[in-house]
Model the fold of this input.
Amino acid sequence: MNTISLSSQTYQWLDQRAKKESRTPDQLADELLREQLTPQHAYIEVVDRIGGVRAMIHGSRVAVSDIVGYLQVGETPESIAQDVLPHLSLAQIYDALSYYHDHHDEIEAELATNDEQMARAYLRERLSEEGYQVITGQKP
Done:
């Protein structure tokens, strides 16, 4: 956690806007600073999801890390746009890759935490062990 000093007037503006959006000043300041300080990517938005903050292709449920994952298993940007995720344009795919290169460490950390083992643990936590066994076919 780092600290930034703001003038009283700037903090008041931030606080008022945060209240209107039912957020904390810290959340709003983090989002505004990210927007201003990170390279611009027309097709990418950073959203706060249940699993944490994720870079997503705007207007979709596809994360930048998903695109990177497809590349890691041998897909090409063209095959992703044509065969895997045909609702996305090639420009969106390439913007996701550009974002990945600008935010390599963040996306790699996301990929490391979103593996099959983590998914199974998440399902067990949400469904209970019995529910998990039912949906995975281990229990009728």
Summary: The longest strand covers residues 44-49. The mean pLDDT is 88.
